[in-house]
Amino acid sequence: MNELAITLIGPDRPGIVADVAEVLARLGANLTDSTMTRLRGHFAMTLICTGPAAAEVEAALAPLTSDGQLVASVRAVVPDGVAAPAGEPYVLTVHGADRLGIVAAVTRVLAEAGGNVTDLTTRLTGRLYVVIAEVDLPAGTADELTARLTRVATDLDVEVTLRPADSDLL
């Protein structure tokens, strides 16, 4: 089995997810991880699947991309196997007036503390900028990190909150 990373982006329209999922199902590709969103009217999807070779998936997706509106990329990746969580899960939120450098400053503080961003969403609504990030932090670093984030938030004139993540219920 091949493990593939597939990305798609283009103007949003109804049915893109169904079209892509049907192509993959016909090929016998098992969709294991995925994320999809609309970004200012643009469809963006990233997924990992197991199944046929990358060239076969690219060929099967070609009819969806032939008009040049939707762009797809398919590449083989090395499976990372089953790994223990790298740290303690937290949720970081940032709210404030939009300005350059918010994501850069906050994620730099996380990186310097050994934190890993596992999911990140940003939204601009009017002048309000919102960041929501799921992060894994090294054990015992949350209090010191909160203090550092508070200093950065003051410099940026935004509000930052770091709280333990609730366990996912499946």
Detailed description of the structure:
The chain is α+β, with helices and mostly antiparallel strands. 29% of the residues lie in helices and 43% in strands. Strands 2-3-1-4 form a 4-stranded antiparallel beta sheet, covered by helices on one side. A 4-stranded antiparallel beta sheet has the order 6-7-5-8, covered by helices on one side. Helix 1 (16-27) runs antiparallel to helix 2 and helix 3 packs antiparallel against helix 4 (142-156). The longest helix has 15 residues, at 142-156. The protein starts with a strand and ends in a 6-residue tail after the last strand. The relative contact order is 0.16.
Summarize the structure.
The protein is of the alpha+beta class and 170 residues long. It has helices at 16-27, 54-65, 102-112, 142-156, and strands spanning 2-11, 30-39, 42-51, 71-76, 88-97, 116-125, 128-137, 158-164.
Strand fraction band? 35-45%
Please give the share of residues in helix.
Answer: 25-40%
Helix count from the secondary structure assignment:
4
- The Rg value, from CA coordinates, equals 19 Å
Shape field: globular
N-to-C series of helices and strands: EHEEHEEHEEHE
**Low confidence ranges:** none
* Average residue pLDDT: 93
Q: Major sheet, described briefly?
A: 4 strands, antiparallel
Strand segment count: 8
What is the end-to-end distance? 26 Å
